Amino acid sequence: MIRSCKILLLTEAEEETFMVGASLGKWIRPGEVVALLGDLGSGKTCLTQGIARGLDVPESCCVRSPSFVILNTYPGRCTVHHLDLYRVRDALEMEDLGWREILYGGGVCVIEWADRMLDLLPERHVRVLLFHRGETNRRIEIEVWGDPDGERSEDLRRSLARFEREDAERASPEEGFVDGGLVDRAER
After folding, report:
1. Third-level CATH fold of 3-187
2. What is the pTM of this model?
3. Using 50, 70 and 90 to split pLDDT, how confident is the model at 187?
4. Contact (Cβ atoms closer than 8 angstroms) between residue 109 and residue 83
């Protein structure tokens, strides 16, 4: 897989993290996958709520992390599949979930704790890494994979420009996630 683009952002409030998600939701197309990685409480569900709003999921739909049911589906501009793999141990468990139909269907698939299935992701996907930088501040890395000409990546960068900050690069932690996630940044 080839990463086409990496966008570094800083958000200073939960509302800003939601707005980043909404911008991503407006940009994303049916059939695409958003893989979210980050420690507990890093903002994955908040970002997902924004993505859902950007995909025109009605406000009457309560977008929550499906930690116990693993999958929630919402109506919107296209069907939104929201997977939470926190309780999934390995890729073999994914077979029981029917992951191929979810990932390669016509809707958008947003996956929390996607580090449990990185090898199963399609070549074209968006990987979002969230890092704590205080109680409400987050460092967000958005990586667009499989955009050979980079045009779509640049459209996304422009829509998120207000969240790009000069100190985003310096805010990068030396190690990745601790809670069952990535540890060696080189593996990403």
Report:
1. Rossmann fold (3.40.50)
2. 0.84
3. very low
4. yes
